[in-house]
Amino acid sequence: MAEEHQARVQKTIEDMVQSLERDHIRKMQGLMFKCSAECCDRSTDSMSQVHTCIERCHAPLAQAQGLVTNELEKFQDRLTRCTMHCNDKARDLFDSGAKEPAVRAMMENCVGSCVDDHINLIPSMTHRLKENLDSIPQ
């Protein structure tokens, strides 16, 4: 059953990331490549100047990718903490003499609640990411 919970979270996160990529990141990539191509068209610039120009073109996309990565890491950390709390509760219940089926059921319910709670956070996380991505100067 844990695989089922993991699959639900993974599918929801993948959908969010695909939406962000399609609606925001892809446009930024296009601008980055166009900007980089313009840098390369500067025939009078030195190699160093062209390199600096290209790095400047890549900066917004790198910032966007960093924002998304950071937000996903925070989400994963929170979900991990929640499931570790479930693990601790299950261990405590087992140590107090509860039978394995009862411990498994409690663990399943607890992890299910963690997943539900965190899936419910994804729309606000998506909104926050979209606002942050839109605020990155191109």
TrEMBL record:
It comes from the Eukaryota. It comes from Salvelinus namaycush. This is Protein FAM136A. Pfam families: DUF842. PANTHER family: PROTEIN FAM136A. The gene is LOC120021416. One of its GO terms (cellular component) is cytoplasm. Belongs to the FAM136 family. The lineage of its organism: Eukaryota, Metazoa, Chordata, Craniata, Vertebrata.
